[in-house]
Amino acid sequence: MIYPIKACILLFARSTFYAQAGRFMDRFQNGHETAAQAAGQQELWILGQPPLKKYLDFVDDLGREGANGIRSDRVNEWRNANDYYELLMRTERNIADAIETFSLPSELDDCAAELAADPRFRHTFESLPTAIKMVELDRLVVCQNHVNRNFVEMLKSRLGQAADIASLFRFCLPLEEYQAPVQIREADSRRYIFRSSSTDFRFHEALMLKPGQISGHESFGQIAGVIGLVVGFSSNFLNAIHDDDSGRLVLNNGYHRACALSELGITHAPCIVQTVTRRDELDLIAKPIVANDPGYFFNSPRPPLLKDFKDPKIRKLCATKKVARTIEVSYEIRDYLVEE
């Protein structure tokens, strides 16, 4: 498809990052990453992609330099990268249209069948036509312009370069339970704090449960119903959105794994692919940045690609403070009479 291009219980859930103060780090420029590599926590950015203010705010809030750095230097770095993208629009015009995809090898049939039978897969990918394919990594269009470098390195060491095809499938589309530690505390009688170092940590949903679904709870009276507030992780599957007209694929989830695989020299990987045929379908599955500006990602001559994370002319490694994702959940109860 062608999109226009344009550059009575009340529940409250709020997700934030808490930063822990870190020591001051010397500035680095022009692709020189030595200072950041010695810093501990690092964030890998693709510069030159709008909005500029997002990058500047990130460095001010979470960079080890914070607001002490020279802002004009950051703007110049971003501007140079943006100029480089203008060059790529001529030298790599429509390169995203030629991304390679093909069917899974037959030795992965059992893995694919197990995945398709999993309730997390069925629940997440029930709306649109879905397939599991081998997808070329470097030409995936990306809508997320930074990843945690430490996590990418950890994933690389976990998989290694000599992984067999079944291990690669499980790395991209894992069914095992996520093991990131979670801290939970009661802030007050109606407010709870959940905290994890994982960026995949999120509020799931509020749902109604029947008394029979609750075990181990001793109530002081008969239970009429139960409201559950669910916090956890996503299905964590590598997946992309396919536009049936341009043929492009926008990476929707799995950025750290995709970067790790690309850096290991792995060119194609198992990926869940959902196909959209109309603009309204994007609202069902895409991130807001894609759904609000689909023309940029699906029709512009040279959108940002996964391979840009490896390009020294536009990548920037930033030393950052250590952060944790914090989800605060609170509720309110109202008890009153209404006429029937």
Describe the fold and architecture.
By secondary structure, the chain is an alpha+beta fold. It is built from 11 helices and 14 strands. The protein has helices spanning 34-37, 52-62, 71-91, 109-117, 119-124, 149-159, 165-172, 255-263, 279-285, 288-292, 294-298; strands at residues 9-20, 42-46, 101-103, 130-136, 146-148, 182-188, 191-196, 201-209, 226-233, 239-243, 249-253, 268-276, 315-319, 322-333. The strands form 4 sheets. The chain has a 5-stranded mixed β-sheet. The chain has a 4-stranded antiparallel β-sheet with strand order 1-14-7-6, with no helix packed on it. The radius of gyration is 22 Å and the shape is globular.
State the shape: globular
Biggest beta sheet attributes:
5 strands, mixed
Task: Give, in order, the helices and strands.
Answer: EHEHHEHHEEHHEEEEEEHEHHHEE
Number of helices: 11
Strand order of the largest sheet: 3-4-12-10-11
Distance between the ends? 51 Å
Q: Using only CA atoms, what is the Rg?
A: 22 Å
Q: Class by helix and strand content?
A: alpha+beta
User: Which assembly state applies to the chains in this document?
Assistant: single chain
Q: What's the pLDDT, averaged over the residues?
A: 87
Strand composition percent: 25-35%
Low-confidence stretches: 4-11, 18-39
Total beta strand runs? 14
Fraction in helix: 25-40%
